[in-house]
Amino acid sequence: MKKIIYTLILSLFVAQGFAQDPLLQRNNETLDEIATKITRTYDDKLSLEGEQFMLFQKKVEEFLIREEKIHNNYSGKQKLDLINELRKAETMEMRNVLTQIQFDVYKRIKPEIQPLAVVKTEKN
Predict the structure, then answer these.
(1) Model's pTM, two decimal places?
(2) Separation CA 76–CA 81 (nearest Å)
(3) pLDDT digit string, tens, across residues 20-56
(4) 84 in a structural domain
């Protein structure tokens, strides 16, 4: 009996050790829904084919999760700068999902579909 309990406890610790990054891997339905809506909007202009839709949607969701972390941990100009860098990285990663023609259209329409937030600052 002791051996079984010891094995179960050890299994729990091992499982925790192999867990993936919860921020990047969590199943957040809200962000999933937002990513799907964004992808559908792009799909109207890009005509995503076959597996492209799913790959595009997962990539959008991945970057929404990262952006949410920035929104929660930063403010002001630093927040805007980090989001801008993140958006550039997202654009570059979409090269692996889209054809060259689709990518050219994507770069042109992205500011309309996913605009950056503008941070208001007080002038003294």
Answers:
(1) 0.70
(2) 9
(3) 444 444 455 699 999 999 999 999 999 999 899 999 9
(4) yes
CA dist 79 and 67 (Å) reads 9
Contact partners, residue 46, CB within 8 Å, separation at least 6: 98, 102, 105, 106
Report the number of distinct structural domains present in the chain. 1
> Does residue 107 lie in a domain region?
yes
In a domain? residue 79? yes
The DSSP call for residue 116 is P
Residue type, 26: R
Q: 60-91: per-residue pLDDT in tens?
A: 999 999 999 999 999 999 999 999 999 999 99
- Alpha-carbon dihedral sign for residues 103, 84, 68, 14: positive
Per the structure, the complete domain to which residue 76 belongs is given by 21-113
Task: Please name which of 55, 40, 28 lies closest in space to residue 113, comparing C-alpha atoms.
Answer: 40
Residue 12 lies in a domain: no
Its sign, for the CA torsion 42, 44, 50, 54, is positive
